[in-house]
Amino acid sequence: MPRTSRIQGLRDLTVEARRKSVAEAAGVDPESIAAFDPAHGLGLGHADHMIENVAGILGVPLGIATNFVVNRAEVLVPMATEEASVVAAASNAAKIARVHGGFTTSSTAPVMQAQVQIVGVADPEAGRVRLLEAREELIALANAQDERLVEFGGGVRDIAVRLVSSRVGTYVVAHLQVDVRDAMGANAVNTMAEAVAGRAADIAGGRPLLRILTNKADLRLCRARAVFDAATLGGAEVVDDIIHAAALAEADPYRAATHNKGIMNGVSAVVLATGNDTRAVEAGAHSHAISESGRYTSLSRFERDSDGNVVATLELPMPVGLVGGATKVHPAAQAALTLLGVRTAAELAEIITAVGLAQNFAAVRALATEGIQRGHMALHARNIATTVGATAEEVPAVVARIIADKKVHADHAERVLADLRAGR
Ligand SMILES: CC(C)(COP(=O)([O-])OP(=O)([O-])OC[C@H]1O[C@@H](n2cnc3c(N)ncnc32)[C@H](O)[C@@H]1OP(=O)([O-])[O-])[C@@H](O)C(=O)NCCC(=O)NCCSC(=O)C[C@@](C)(O)CC(=O)[O-]
Ligand SMILES: NC(=O)C1=CN([C@@H]2O[C@H](COP(=O)(O)OP(=O)(O)OC[C@H]3O[C@@H](n4cnc5c(N)ncnc54)[C@H](OP(=O)(O)O)[C@@H]3O)[C@@H](O)[C@H]2O)C=CC1
């Protein structure tokens, strides 16, 4: 069966049947994603070697977003999140995007930057020039720290030197710009920065202090683009309102924060599912959301094209890896990468960016039409029913009643559950 991400009715299956259906649709052995089941997932033994003082494991729901087409390839996307309606929303937007071919993505080379702060330089302008004169020596010294990375085609691409004025003086800050290939790259570039710091400080005429990567990974950018069909959305007025909603986010930091949170609902769920560093990706994204005038703004842009459809675009740093960090040691993260069928970190990064754009569009479409609550709370109602003690068998009836009563609250769910159990 050709690989497809269009699985209708996936929501109506049991968890086990869903996993089987997803494996079949993705064309992978069901055993290769068995680790999605906690019984075959991260064990305490593994966990005890990942972080310190391990006392247990926190499970996070892992859902599969459907309908995605990215660069003409069908993709089923694992999303780890505690928030209801996120997986549904991403699937919904991906379904609408299919009408015009899904998502098109692109990315720069996987270049991460490490900073070396040099303090006490009497002549910082000259210190900067002296460091640039020593470019080849410093590159060779840095590359010598990770010969295998260089063998993979990675390694230092360039050195930049910035002068940063602070309240207590001007710092000479050297940036190592390193192609880290299929790694997220933090450990790799931090090792290089520590190795060159002493020599760089001697050349600059100061003392080395901070040697650490920057999470403002703006040399490692990903872009996603998709067209959302006006007729499918409900016509020109809906398109106008979606454009208005996005324009507010572009102009107003208060709205931009929530608009971007919507993007990160999708991004962080896939970053987490693949064992990558969510904090690094989020720090990079929000540091990138600064306009030319210095104002915090939205990361995505929505425009009306010549056919009256919505064209949505997103660009953000995406420092994720296929090797390194938890990705290699977490069985469920390995299963997620198998399901995604990605061969390089860039392919993973681009799919994540497409999911962020899908999530963002679904939210803004809902907000600009019916509001967020109908869709979101209908799915959140299941959490509320479970919270008040409904069994799996009782949840559907409790959900139906609290939605029908338009009272999706725990206290009403408790009354409904009591009535159901009393046969009322
Ligand atoms: C929730 C929907 C999708 C319902 O929307 P709907 O139109 O009632 O859904 P539908 O039943 O017509 O289904 C349409 C498609 O959505 C998916 N879908 C639909 N329901 C399910 C489900 N139960 N399980 C799995 N998939 C589901 C599924 O793909 C389905 O098509 P199919 O593939 O079946 O042919 C819609 O209202 C929506 O997209 N809402 C946006 C919700 C959202 O953004 N949630 C994120 C949390 S809110 C937040 O934190 C972000 C925010 C809002 O603050 C960001 C911002 O402010 O910008
Ligand atoms: N501020 C931040 O964001 C920070 C993040 N971190 C953490 O660092 C971790 C990520 O760092 P990272 O350097 O990726 O981790 P690793 O050092 O674990 O992985 C990178 C290493 O993987 C090996 N490797 C094998 N195949 C490849 C390939 N195809 N491409 C590239 N490298 C390959 C290389 O090591 P070899 O040459 O030995 O084979 C490379 O140095 C994350 O867990 C993150 O949380 C740490 C500090 C700060």
Automatic annotation (TrEMBL):
GO terms for biological process: coenzyme A metabolic process. SUPFAM superfamilies: NAD-binding domain of HMG-CoA reductase (SSF55035), Substrate-binding domain of HMG-CoA reductase (SSF56542). It is an enzyme of class 1 (oxidoreductase). Pathway: Metabolic intermediate metabolism; (R)-mevalonate degradation; (S)-3-hydroxy-3-methylglutaryl-CoA from (R)-mevalonate: step 1/1. It catalyses: (R)-mevalonate + 2 NAD(+) + CoA = (3S)-3-hydroxy-3-methylglutaryl-CoA + 2 NADH + 2 H(+). Keywords: NAD, Oxidoreductase. Pfam families: HMG-CoA_red. NCBIfam families: HMG_CoA_R_NAD. This is 3-hydroxy-3-methylglutaryl coenzyme A reductase. It comes from Prauserella muralis.
